[in-house]
Amino acid sequence: MKRDRLVVARVRKQLTLEHAAELLGVNANTLYKWEAGKATPRFYNIQKLCEVYGASAWELGLDIVPEVVTSQALATNQALSTFMQTDLTLRLLVLVFEPHRVTYQHLQQLQERIRQILEEEPAIDNDLISRREALHRLALLPFATLQLSALGASLSRPIEDILTQCAAGIAACWHLSKSAEGSDLALAFRCVSGYLPTLKAIVKDSSQYRKAAATLAGQCALLQTMLGWHLQGLKEAEQYAQEAVIYSREAQDIPLLVSALDYAAWMHSYAKRDQQALHTIEQALPLLKPKSHIAPLPSHLRGGVYSTLAVMQAKNGQDAGDSLGLARETFFSSASDEPCFVYIVDHRASGIVVNDAAVQYYQGKAERALDALSQVIDPETLVAKIPLPERARIETFNDMARAVLRSENKEMERVIYFWRAALEGALKLHSEQRFSEVLVTYEIMGSLWPREKRITELRDLVVHW
Predict the structure, then answer these.
(1) Peptide bond into 122 cis (omega under 30)
(2) What's the pLDDT band for 5 if we cut at 50, 70, 90?
């Protein structure tokens, strides 16, 4: 049966079949089939038709007759609602498969809704499927339904579906990156690496979805930077960081670009290229200034960048006091309604304090550095006082050991206590970066106490997995 109302609405707008199809984001053959009654548009296509033609679904002959709600249907809906409260996977998948029009804003909102669900407090105690398993399923979904692969692009499914599922998968991978299990970090790395070939192909070939795909590709590369640093090495991580910068520029995504420059600066810093690290973070400073046509960046992102700047200045022998003050002032002025992004997981209060400690350490104030770190980790129980990712918690243990080593009162037992906690965490996380940091600290301990039996006996614990 022909849908004459669709044809009439298009002609009323003085649109050709080809022009209308372009505005609708479909090909002309698809629109022809809708008008000829040979195919039925999806819900989000109907929404777009209404928007382009300036008419309601009823006026276009596309309204759906409401179903009669029976007592059986009501009971089913109630059962579904109860089940969703105990099944995190289902709650997340419902978000992924909701009808929508794919835009940058929608993808950001999707990731934010996933983040909110995952960070709900208190967590549900009787989940039928655990949080970790739910994250695994969401991260692996694009491979199961879209046949994505790290070996090459796969565009056999609608681009809207690819972008939506990859956005959700990336959100899951960012949460997995905070895990204390090395297998979670490895899975997250493999997943984002598998999304990238297809996302890059969309950036290259699609004018309509180029920016959205570039944003997601930049997020993947940013996550590769952090995870590759732990799983592969600094050389690979620096390359991933440069790719994150490239794709965030392509997307004209300022928050993502600022985050990419921040990560790139840290990679250069850990590679002992301190001048390059300072130059890189300085490139982010002009982007922090508010512009009339761009929404202000979140305070915690701007504060995090100033905090990174302070560390890089201290490592280069510069005064970091003004940058530290600006970091604290900016970070803690954040409002509850500011936008949040899944990839700013490390810009927390703990990061500001740890960077403050780093500045004190590089300025030769080891006791002050240890006092600052003690605001993040209880030095007696080693329990975190402020939420932070496991990889950051392990680094803090090692930083505490180094701060004691550099202090006037070098308490060997205290050094060993912090160092063993860092070693155990690095081994469990299978982090090459954290393991190498622990080895360096052990060498310092051995140089300071060369014949001390309690130090030499620790060598047997340092066994790579």
Answers:
(1) yes
(2) confident
